[in-house]
Amino acid sequence: MAANRGTWLRSPAASLMFVVIGVVGLYLVIEHSTHVLAVIPYLVLLACPLMHFLHRGHDGHHDRNGEAATHDKSPGSSRSN
What we know:
mainly alpha, 52% helix
């Protein structure tokens, strides 16, 4: 068996990548803050469909048997079980 080498996130290449991304991000915020602030509403609009696409199947509406799951089990609930 191969020895556990650790994750890629702890490698020197990953550290260098995070530093470069940080420096570029800082440069964009300092020198081009007007442009960065103008893009934020569009990023939020793009994030909504992206989150819906990425979270498919994680909604928890069905249990493992395919039956509908009821989340509200309080005694005064209007749902019938």
